[in-house]
Write a structure and sequence with these properties.
261 residues; mainly alpha; two-stranded antiparallel ribbon; two-stranded antiparallel sheet; 9 helices; 52% helix; disordered C terminus
Length: 261
């Protein structure tokens, strides 16, 4: 028999707990799980941006790139790069750092450094992009032109920007896939930590948990998104059920569909 699905806001539940080690441990576990999931989300978005960039570049005519086309390509590349570096290098107060790059091979670490230096020295801040680049990301020169007709002098500023198509894009694509594969390996351990904590230290907290419902409509403020929240079944890493008999939160590996056991 189908049961009515329920959802609870673990943030509200944790915030309502008395200050102390129990509350701190739960907040840390929530942050750890959401942190790795947000890293995967950013890397997945980076992969999609690179896919769009590839489709965009495939439509271009070699040697006849327009300014609009070049700017769009650069914007897509920059976005993918920022998502990758934000997920793998940037330290944030909003999520724990992901140090998957420590598992990289020596060659992949070099490629990672090139991409990170490019972000730090050319995209987030104006500059050539780092000493390991095969050629400067942007290069400025100033020429002094002598007009042969009038003998007048003119200042002629020139610049050139590296293409986003080629080795640099290939390296970024490869690094995104590598980081994604490493990040995904950390999801289940983070989920297990959270489940174990809920089961062992919060089994008697059902009454308080019941007072912390999660309202998808209130959160998303969007009816299709709220409906999709209930339609999308739980994954193997976030299946929990509330046992009214034992008054505790337990892991339910037999749960295959939302609201069905």
């Amino acid at each position: 028999m189908l049961k009515t699905s329920k959802a609870f806001d673990l943030h509200d539940y944790a915030d309502a707990l008395p200050r102390g080690k129990t509350r701190t441990k739960l907040l840390s576990a929530i942050r750890g799980y959401l942190g790795i999931k947000s890293v995967i989300r950013d890397l997945t978005h980076a992969r999609e941006v690179m896919r769009i960039l590839g489709e965009h570049q495939a439509k271009e005519t070699p040697g006849r790139q327009t300014l609009d086309s070049a700017l769009l390509g650069r914007a897509l590349f920059n976005q993918a790069l920022l998502l990758y570096v934000g997920a793998t290098k940037t330290v944030s107060h909003s999520r724990p750092p992901f140090d998957g790059w420590r598992m990289y091979s020596e060659n992949d670490r070099k490629r990672h450094k090139v991409i990170c230096d490019l972000r730090d020295n050319a995209i987030a801040h104006y500059g050539p992009g780092g000493e390991l680049l095969r050629q400067p990301w942007v290069e400025d020169r100033l020429a002094l032109v002598v007009n042969s007709q009038t003998d007048m002098l003119h200042l002629k500023p020139c610049y050139k920007i590296s293409a986003t198509k080629g080795v640099l894009s290939d390296d970024l694509r490869a690094l995104i896939e590598l980081a994604l594969s490493l990040a995904e390996l950390r999801v289940n351990p983070k989920a297990e930590d959270l489940f174990n904590l809920l089961r062992t230290e919060h089994g008697a907290g059902q009454d308080l948990l019941e007072k912390s419902p999660f309202d998808p409509m209130k959160f998303f403020d969007n009816e299709p998104a709220a409906a999709a929240f209930w339609e999308t079944g739980p994954s193997e890493t976030n299946m929990i059920s509330i046992s009214a008999d034992r008054r505790q939160v337990v892991r339910d590996d037999s749960l295959n569909r939302t609201g069905e056991s």
